[in-house]
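EI: anyone free to look at a 225-residue chain?
SC: sure, send it
EI:
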Amino acid sequence: MVDKDVYYQVILDGFSRYLESPFMADVTRTIIRYPDARFYVALNKNQMASKKWLIDELYRSKGSDLGTIYILGGWFGILSAMLLNDERFNIDCVVSFDMDPECGPIAEYMNRSHVEKNRFHAVTADVNRIEYPHATGAKPNGAAAPDIVINTSCEHMDAASGWYDRIPAGTIQVLQSNDQFDCEEHHNCVNDLDMFRQQSPMVEIMFGGELERKRYTRFMLIGRK
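SC: here you go
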């Protein structure tokens, strides 16, 4: 009898080869390397649908040239890998911030081919306290000031905790939240898109929309602070 973990890893590896997908290959190798990580949550259908929605709408709103991207609450680096492996985009670098020290090594392994090219950095830091470099100022881990800041975990972060205020004015933002109030890890859900707009004021909104899921609605804003 084949161990169930090996069973599914073999299937994933087979799909990655059939589809010739660098992203799936990276995911498979990372799952094998870190079998105890919560990939069953990070890669579930709701998470992946939300990330794909973000990427497609970002392309429609911003086009191909994305420059340097900061991802707040980047977790295992899956969104970073999806962006960096998307041939529609020209990306200089993605910097993924997460306060959990266990996330950094996993995110770097997930994106190791991009680490080698200096296109991905995982930083262990509290996003409520990070200092954003100016265009000509200090560059954390060699990365430039962000052209785009992404936060898909706004429901996990207190609106008054400081992360939003620290983002430099004029920066393009991609923000997601939801109305899943019954989740213990969610401290800052919103009732609707209007409430999300009030919570995250922007001088220019490029996109605002909702994605209906089985247990909640996900809200997204793309715009300039």
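EI: Residues 45-62 form the longest helix (18 residues).
SC: 👍
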